[in-house]
């Protein structure tokens, strides 16, 4: 496991947690041996505090959230956390199965996350903003 979590760190909506587990079940059937990506996301869901709805989710990164973040010494950036079939990294739509997506899911504004890249490099990011995607942004993710 490339991430260290404790249960107080991550909060997921019940609907996101359910959809993620269904997706993971589908993906696990075709997973390659030695692929830690699915196991990493399973761990995030397992340690998360799952809530039906409410203020606990107001500043949390949920599926299809738009996220602002900064990396030490660099200009701030934005991305949208998407389902794998809607990911277009060059347009800022990042899959929940990516190292960045796994590290950010369920976190909140002010959290610092460590992203372990496939190359072995690590990036420390600070989440500076979270907002729900608008309808037109969600429509842009549909092929």
Structure description:
- This protein has one domain: Roll (Chitinase A, domain 3), CATH 3.10.50.30.
- It is built from 4 helices and 7 strands.
- It has helices spanning 14-28, 37-47, 99-104, 135-139, and strands at 11-13, 49-51, 65-71, 77-82, 93-95, 112-116, 122-132.
- The strands form 2 sheets. The chain has a 5-stranded mixed beta sheet. It has a two-stranded parallel ribbon with strand order 1-2.
- A hairpin with a 5-residue loop joins strand 6 and strand 7.
- Helix 1 (14-28) runs antiparallel to helix 2 (37-47).
- 25% of the residues are buried.
- The model has no long low-confidence stretch (mean pLDDT 83).
List the helices and strands and how they pair.
Elements: E1 11-13, H1 14-28, H2 37-47, E2 49-51, E3 65-71, E4 77-82, E5 93-95, H3 99-104, E6 112-116, E7 122-132, H4 135-139
The CATH topology is Chitinase A, domain 3
- Nearest-integer average pLDDT: 83
Q: CATH homologous superfamily name?
A: Transcription elongation factor, GreA/GreB, C-terminal domain
What low-confidence regions span 5 or more consecutive residues with pLDDT below 50? none
Q: Tell me roughly what share of residues is in helical segments.
A: 25-40%
CATH architecture: Roll
Strand order of the largest sheet: 5-4-3-7-6
* Structural domain count: 1
